[in-house]
Specification:
By secondary structure, the chain is an alpha+beta fold. It has 16 helices and 22 strands. It has four domains: 195 residues, no CATH class; 191 residues, no CATH class; 86 residues, Golgi alpha-mannosidase II (Immunoglobulin-like, Sandwich); 101 residues, no CATH class.
C-alpha cells in the first residue's frame, strides 16, 4: 500500500487540527526556547566550551526540531521560523568536515574516536540529520542541508560498506537504517538502500561493544534480524530497527525479512503492549521484558517508543495492508503518544505510567538514593529530550497516515477530518472522533473506496447519499465501488465498554479498564479522591459522556470501605460513588495526584 504525501492532505477543523495549531503556536516555539537555553543549537557551531559540553545525541534533538519546522513551512510561510531554520542549517553546513562528516560532539571533543565507539549514537544522530534534510527539501524550505547530508551519507557508505575500516559494524541505536531508506526513496540512489540493508544484515553477526550495564539484546545485537521472532531490549531501538526491516522487506520484496517483521509485530501486540499502546515495560534498559510483564505504576512506556510503534505500524501497512496495523496506530496515537504532552502544549512526559501514587512519588523524592519512579507532572525539557521534538514532528506529519492507495483502490485508514485530491478522485472526511463515532466521507471521482471499520465499533450503520445501505464489510473494511459523487455517512456507535487483560498479566487480574471508542479512560484523585484502587465498577449501564472543556464519562461505582484496622475479619462495606473518568492522554494537567486505569 502507498500512503499519501502529507503535503497533499489538508487537515480540517477538528481534534487533530486543534492539536496541530497548538503544536505550531506553542510547542515548537517552546521547545526552541528550551533548546536555545540548554545550548543545543549553539553546539552546532562546533566550538569547544567545556562549561557547556554537548551531549553525544544533541544533534538528534536539533534535527527533530528542524523536522517539525519543515512540516510547518511546507504548509505556510513563517519568516521567523524559516530564519531559525536557516541559521541552524548554516551552522551545520559551515562546520562539517571536508569529507562530509558532521557531529557536534565528536568533532570537538573526540575527533580521534570518529566511528570507533558503537554506543555513542554517531549514526543515530546522522540518521536524524538525514531525515530532516529530506524533509526540508521535500517541504521546499531548504536544499543546502540535503546536499550536505548526501555528502555525509556517501562518507558513511565509504567507511562502513566499502573500506570497512570502522571500529564497529552497526550502531548501538538503530535509526540510520530507516533514514537511509528515506534517503534512497528521495534520491533514487541505490547505494543508500544497499547500505541500509547492509546495516540490517550485519546486526547480530558480530561481537560488538555494549554498555557495561546492558546485554546484546539491548542494542538489538543478540540475533541476526531474520532470526528475531520476539521483541527484546530497548524498545525505541527495537522498533526503529523493525521499521527499517519492514521498509527493506517491502522495497526488495524480501519474504524472509517480512516474516520476521510479522512475528515481531504479533509478539508486541499480543504479549508486550500496554492497553494504551505503550511499549517497553521496565526502566532497566527502557526495554521489553518477558511476555505479559506489564506493570502499571512502574511502567516505562516511553513517548518515543509509542511514536516508534506508530512508525512500525505504518511500515507494516505499506508492506501488506491489514486493518490491525491501523487499529494499533490509532490506539497508540490517541493514548500513549498524546499523553506525552500537556494540554497547554508546554510540558512533556518521557515516561507514561498507567497508575500514579502521589505518596510513593513524594517518598521517593525524599530519599538520598532515589529509585525509579514516574513523575506526576510534565516538564518543559529533560536532560535527555528526545521525546518533545519527536512528538512535535509526528503531530505535524500526521496527514500521511490517513489515506492509502493500491491501484484504483483508495483507503481511509484514520478518521481524521481532512481532504485530499488524487489523479482520479477527491475525498474529504469530517469526523467526530475520538469523542464521537460519526464520520461523513465525501467522494468525487472513480475507484473502489475502502473505509476501515474501527475494532472498537458498537455496530455500524451507513447512509449513501441519504439512503440507508447495509455495509459490505470484509477484512474490517467497508468496500464501495464509486463512479461519480457520493456522500457516505457512517456511525460506528461509539460507547463505553470494559476491557479485560489476559490472565497472564498478573498485575491486572480481577480488574478491568474502560474504553470509549479509541480512548482509554482513567480516573484521577482530582475528581474522585484518593484510594482509587478501592473503587469497583459493577456495570457501565447508565454511563454518561459529556464533551466540555474536558471530555468526561460519569459512571456509577462502589468504593470499598474497611473498618479502619490494618487487617480485619470483617469484609469491606460498599459505598456508592459517582466516578468521573477522563481520557488517559488528559491526565496530570491539574497538579499532582493519583491516577488509575484498571478497576475492580
Amino acid at each position: 500500500m502507498q500512503t499519501a504525501d502529507y503535503k497533499n492532505v489538508e487537515i480540517r477543523a477538528g481534534f487533530v487540527r486543534d492539536l496541530q495549531e497548538r503544536n505550531e503556536r506553542v510547542s515548537v516555539d517552546n521547545i526552541y526556547k528550551r533548546f536555545r537555553e540548554t545550548g543545543r543549537f549553539e553546539a552546532e557551531k562546533c566550538k569547544r566550551d567545556d562549561a557547556h559540553k554537548p551531549h553525544i545525541f544533541w544533534d538528534s534533538d536539533v534535527a527533530k526540531w528542524l523536522e517539525s519546522a519543515a512540516y510547518i513551512l511546507a504548509k505556510r510561510q513563517d519568516a521567523e521560523l524559516k530564519g531559525r531554520v536557516e541559521e541552524i542549517v548554516a551552522d551545520i553546513c559551515a562546520n562539517r568536515r571536508a569529507d562530509g562528516y558532521f557531529n557536534s560532539y565528536f568533532q570537538v571533543y573526540e575527533p580521534e574516536n570518529v566511528f570507533c565507539k558503537r554506543t555513542e549514537h554517531e549514526l543515530y544522530c546522522a540518521g536524524h540529520l538525514i531525515e530532516v534534510a529530506v524533509a526540508l527539501r521535500d517541504a521546499g524550505a531548504d536544499e543546502k542541508l540535503y546536499a550536505a547530508m548526501l555528502r555525509y551519507a556517501d562518507y558513511i557508505y565509504d567507511r562502513f560498506y566499502v573500506k570497512k575500516d570502522t571500529g564497529f559494524y552497526t550502531c548501538g541505536h538503530p535509526e540510520i537504517e530507516l533514514a537511509l531508506v528515506r534517503l534512497y526513496e528521495a534520491s533514487k540512489e541505490k547505494k543508500y538502500l544497499d547500505l541500509a540493508d547492509y546495516f540490517l544484515e550485519e546486526r547480530g553477526r558480530h561481537e560488538e561493544e555494549s554498555y557495561a550495564f546492558t546485554y546484546p539484546s539491548y542494542h538489538q545485537s543478540h540475533l541476526p534480524v531474520r532470526e528475531q521472532k520476539t521483541a527484546e531490549g530497548h524498545a525505541v531501538r527495537a522498533l526503529y530497527l523493525y521499521t527499517a526491516m519492514a521498509d527493506v522487506a517491502r522495497i526488495k520484496k524480501d519474504a524472509g525479512l517480512a516474516e520476521a517483521c510479522k512475528a515481531l509485530f504479533a509478539d508486541i501486540v499480543g504479549k508486550k503492549m500496554y492497553i494504551t499502546g505503550g511499549t517497553g515495560s521496565t526502566y532497566h534498559g527502557e526495554a521489553f521484558t518477558f511476555a505479559y510483564d506489564l506493570p502499571n505504576f512502574l511502567a516505562y512506556s516511553e513517548t518515543c517508543a509509542g511514536i516508534a510503534l506508530a512508525l512500525f505500524c505504518d511500515r507494516m501497512a505499506k508492506l501488506e495492508n491489514r486493518a490491525v496495523y491501523h487499529e494499533i496506530f490509532e490506539r497508540v496515537f490517541y493514548n500513549n503518544i498524546l499523553a506525552g504532552e500537556s494540554r497547554d502544549g508546554k510540558g512533556f512526559f518521557y515516561v507514561n505510567p498507567l497508575e500514579m501514587h502521589e505518596s510513593a512519588y513524594d517518598y521517593n523524592e525524599s530519599l538520598k538514593t532515589k529509585l525509579f519512579c514516574p513523575i506526576p507532572e510534565r516538564v518543559e525539557v529533560f536532560d535527555c529530550s528526545c521525546c518533545p521534538p519527536n512528538l512535535t514532528r509526528f503531530i505535524e506529519s500526521i496527514g500521511k497516515y490517513i489515506y492509502g492507495f493500491e491501484g484504483d483502490e483508495i483507503f481511509v485508514n484514520q478518521y481524521i477530518s481532512s481532504s485530499i485530491k488524487t489523479d482520479t478522485a477527491k475525498i474529504s472526511v469530517r469526523s467526530e472522533m475520538p469523542f464521537g463515532g460519526k464520520a461523513v466521507i465525501r467522494f468525487g471521482g472513480r475507484g473502489r473506496l475502502n473505509l476501515r471499520v474501527p475494532a472498537w465499533n458498537g455496530g455500524v450503520s451507513m447512509k449513501i447519499n441519504g439512503k440507508k445501505v447495509e455495509p459490505d464489510i470484509s477484512d474490517s473494511y467497508i468496500r464501495i465501488d464509486c463512479d461519480g459523487d457520493f456522500e457516505i455517512a457512517l456511525d460506528f456507535k461509539i460507547k463505553a465498554r470494559f476491557v479485560y487483560a489476559n490472565e497472564n498479566v498478573w498485575q491486572d487480574n480481577g480488574r478491568k479498564a474502560v474504553e470509549y471508542g479509541a480512548l482509554v479512560l482513567c480516573g484521577e484523585s482530582a475528581d474522585n479522591g484518593k484510594n482509587l484502587g478501592t473503587v469497583r465498577i459493577p456495570s457501565l449501564s447508565g454511563a454518561k459522556a459529556a464533551k466540555g472543556e474536558l471530555f468526561t464519562l460519569r459512571v456509577s461505582a462502589e468504593r470499598l470501605r474497611t473498618d479502619g484496622a490494618l487487617y480485619s475479619y470483617e469484609p469491606p462495606k460498599k459505598e456508592k460513588v459517582a466516578l468521573r473518568l477522563i481520557p488517559y492522554f488528559c491526565w496530570a494537567n491539574r497538579g499532582k495526584g493519583d491516577m488509575q486505569i484498571w478497576w475492580l
